[in-house]
User: Fold these one by one.
Assistant:
Number 1:
Amino acid sequence: MDFYLTALLQGFCFSAIALGIYISMKIFNIPDITTDGSYTLGGTVTAVLLTHHLPAFAILPIVIATGALAGSITGIIHTKLKINPLLAGILVMTALYSVNLTLMGRSNIPLLNVSSIFSLINISGDPNHNTFWILLFFVAIVTLIIGYLLKTDFGIAMRATGNSESMIRALGVNTDRMKIIGLALANALTATSGYLMTQFQGFADINMGIGIVIVGLGSVIIAESLINWFKITSVWLSLVLVLSGAVIFQMVLAITLNIGVDANLLKLVTAAFVLLIVSLPRLSFKSSL
């Protein structure tokens, strides 16, 4: 049971990155590869500041700011220099590797005997249950903030930028600014996932972000499939399904390991699972014809 509880907790940790991918890919239609770098950046900043005995709560605003800075740089490169957004994200991600390595000073920072957000608050005597309640509260707050933002006039302008850029530009909205802010918000969320996961797993590693975009993408694709199947239009329900997608994704990987699949094949299983999710709606559509 603890095995699946750990998968659930990891799903909660990855929920912020799922929301970030949802904003960049589903609202703005921008494939943002900055994710791999900003996730590691969040973990790096968290580990470095924790080892310097800064409280975990004080670290969070710094992590959000650094993630937002990374995303805004990608947005500026894309909008002001007219660089393809995919290439812009790759450039920033590549640069962030050196930034993260410089900040860490080595490839790995263990967090042994360092207080984290999960040890500052004691809700339950069981460490796993305590982590569960803290993460659940954290995810709920983040979801409420993003949901409220997307329902405001500013959030509606953000969504309109992704749906019909030319129309919203004709109404006087600065679409370049919207894209920069959107990518900044997406990467701030991604860095927040790095902040949570680093404290959950007890270390930060320079390679922790490699392929992490697949986790967020898989979560969003699961949510998108459910949204299309149930014809959901509510912003709140869509966000809840994105969070559910992050948990489902981790549960599938946990089941895969539990049935005896070699851990060395986990990345292969992850890629195959995402491919299956992407393909199923199309295969169903073709079979109906």
Note: Residues 2-208 form one domain.
Number 2:
Amino acid sequence: MSHRHPVLIFLLLVLPSLQLLRGQDDSGESDPRVQQLYLQAKAAQSKGDIAAAIAGYREILRIAPRLGPAYNNLGALYFRQRDYKAAADVLEQGLKLNPGMPSASALLGISLYESGEYLKARPRLEAAVKANPADENAQLFLVKDLSKLSEYQTASSQLQQLASRQPKNQEVWYLLAKTYMKLSEQALAKMNSIDPDSVLSHELSAEVMESMNNYDGAVVELKKAVEMNPQRSGTHFKLGEAYRGLDQWDAALDQFQAELALNPANCQAQWKIGATQLQNNSSAEQALAGINKALSLCPGMTEARVDRARALIKLNRNKEAVADLEEAVKTQPAEASNHFLLAKTYRSLGRMQEAQTEMQIFSNLEESVRTATAERAREVIKNKESPR
């Protein structure tokens, strides 16, 4: 399988535009031999005979060593052959003669990047992007170069610009995600260098573990944080969430209640108390009272509305539950479980047509998830089976 370099399209745009300049009396361009060699090199290039084209440009430069665009063309041909060192050497000579060639600066920066000369590549790529902000290929390589230099903050700024202009470019979002991950790692390392045994260090370690579904590890870290500062707002809540991840409802309830004792106006803690009471089969009336109080404080919590609907359904107040579920599917139309619960509630009320509609939406959303999962699995298998 042949491998096309990611800047091949860029080269196809650059090469035809790099014509020899007119009117440079001291460049040697008017020499008939140069004109003949140029036509021969151009013909060889069009036939795919890159070696012959390179030989032609080298001869041109022997005769006319001050002909700047010839360096550009020759450098681009070396680049096409992936001889990045030769490309960089030639392009640098051309830019000394004619610094006003942003395409040559971009190609030089990319050549240096491909050669592992990241420090040298940066100013060339920055100059190219400054001279031609529309050159998104040069900007993308600048991002990659900055990442190699661990300049993630600057890289993220460049990527945000690219993402605003190319919102459908998956590579840009992939690089932005990686950059944010690196910034996060740097921040964590800095935190640990200040005090690896602080409350914040334990909380952040717990959040990392939770992101990997390691709730046992998160509980250990958060218990340390609570022991160090039991009066700190927010830590009990996080520990309660970790216990919920382990289905340890009573322990979770204790932590949410401890959080609420520190801050009685905490609507999130108030809601989680009610939601946890639903999970551990406490009184549905008691759970409903807590969730109602949370929603009176923060009426915009959609997930709390769903939990209130669950409490109402347990109390056989299905008609009242419908209003919350209808609001939930309106606010979060892509959440399949809300459509399923609304369909069940409609059915219990004899509203069969509406129940059927919601169940169809639920099925469509579930099918979309299954299709996407299957597609990713096929891609993984395909990549494993593809020859290296």
Note: The chain has a mean pLDDT of 88.
Number 3:
Amino acid sequence: MLWVYIAATIVFGTVACAAALRYWPGRRGKRLEQLLEALFAMRVGQDVGQVLCETLDQLRGILGARSVMLFFFEAQEEQLYRWVAGPDGPPQSVTEMSPKENPRWIDFNEPSRLDRYTQEHPLAQRVDAKKVVLSVSCSARGNCARLLVIDPSADSGNVLFATLRRVTDMLFSLAEKVFLLRRVHLRAIDEERDRIAQDFHDGPLQTFFSFDMHLQFIRQILETHPEQAAQELELLQELARDQGRELRELIMEMRPVDMEGASLLSVLRHAVEGGQKGGGILVRMLADEVVLQVPRRICRATYQVLREALNNARKHARAKHVVVALEEGPDFFVLTIDDDGLGFKFSGAYNLDQMEEQRIGPVSIKQRARQMDAELIVESTPGKGSRLRLKVPVPAAPPARLEKD
């Protein structure tokens, strides 16, 4: 899963850096060890971009440098970005660079190298260095990065260069995660927009077409059959009321749910309450208190799965009763949703891979199951109902950080 991958990358990179720093004695070495220990204890849910900026600023202070710059070329976007930590206030967040600047800062012919530039070098003059610039470059997967340490007070020997290489590798990994998370965020927004667009297409848009047809028919019979026209107007008014209720439900669904500090059980109960407010369906929830520490992103995705399942049961399956059950295992939980509606068009039980192969089952729920690395089984009996079973793994919580005296 994405967050586990990010955490593992940061942890392994940090351990490697800390091991190297054991061979660099002195006060600065100890301070860099403390910096890397802080990164090691970084919470998975922290803002990766903010951590990168703060790390650059602390690195500048530890090395006694006038400023520190990190350049990162993102291959998928073909865009160069820059972070700067200087003496004039907090470090700057990521800044897009003009494509014309690419060859000035990144050597694509030799993307991995160590350099020490004196004041006479063009690069040193470009960054207004007074003494020296230390440059460390690295690359992987088509992405390139370059760390510039401007006028450090520390010795620039081979040990320092070796350490800076490892630090740069870690910063490079953090920068990659910044843009990976950005793409995941944008993809989630696109998926939610698609879902909302589909809801409007299946609901309000079809109703407006029906309004138009009814009005045309009423105009045709208004003079010759006034009583029938009056009946049609009553039907049209009832249709408008139903549409108003449906639009109100859509608006309520679009409002974000506050996940801060909320448990999985409270979030799912919120979804159940919202599903019952639509009317026409009775939802019963069976669950014990969940002990597992479920990350916010998993709570949010599970909430969206349950909300989508309840909407499908009410609007498409025309179910009258739904039972939602939540069970907990040692490192997972299982969400089961049973309804007495019309079921899906297929008959039998299918897992996620089988549904993907045959292009059956609820699309958005399948997507969210993939995002959580969850097991999904959908069982359908046409005309009698359906069952959805979602087994979600829960990553182990990061160890608590001990306070130092």
Note: The chain has two domains: 2-181, 256-405.
Number 4:
Amino acid sequence: MKEKIKIALAQISSRREDKKRNLAKIEQYTIRAKEQGADLVIFPELSLTGYVVRDQIYELAETIPGPSTRKLEQLAKETGMYIIFGMPELSEKTKATVCNTSVFIGPEGIIGKYRKMYLPTHSVFEEKRYFRPGYQAVAFDTAIGKIGLCICYDIFFPEVTRLTRLLGAQLVVYISASPAVRRSYFEILTAARALENTAYLAYVNLVGVEDGLQFWGGSRLVSPAGEVLAKAKYDEEDFVMCEVDFEDLKPAETFIPTLRDLRPELFDELKKSSERL
């Protein structure tokens, strides 16, 4: 496993319902990342299709593996790159059950996937109308480190990132489609989740306007001490190169020993209290 890796934060806008165009953009940015020495390139939540697609989600969703993942598998193999992106995943067992999924692909093929656990359904959000929630945290062993996947609203629930970290994730990757009104929340929470888990956190957000909903960008890499190491522009497409040094985990864990000081019995109390809410 490499101790240092280079990451490209590919903060793109997606054209709604146009998978062909969006795949071409993902390919373009992946090649750009490769040319600049990146090991991993990260794209936003639902970057394959756009976020505001409503009932068209049932036509756009694909199984994994499927046509789009196979195309990106070939791209990863040709470039030697690792790629993380978001898409609507169609169940292999049913005809209209869809998950909001983060997909992790490497030169060896599909490494794994994560299905968004928390589906916002309030104000401008209506994800529970379309998506089935996921039920499992994930962290994958790869040649570039142990990497966990999460999606957007999951960051409001600290137990998701904590469980991902306890599975061994050294880098937690959050892909997102956050509108501008939520900007301050995510700027706080990305730092908090990295700091309280002494892990690197990469956050890549969508940009552009979809059906009147403006996405704010602001993608970033946060250190295990909560420091913003790299940040993309607000409200426009951007491409940011940054570096992760996994050697930094040890001093962070020593100076901020939150993992050492965990109290497992409190998780049982949390479960009981949540059930009585």
Note: Helices lie at 19-35, 57-60, 67-79, 127-130, 158-166, 183-197, 249-255, 264-275.
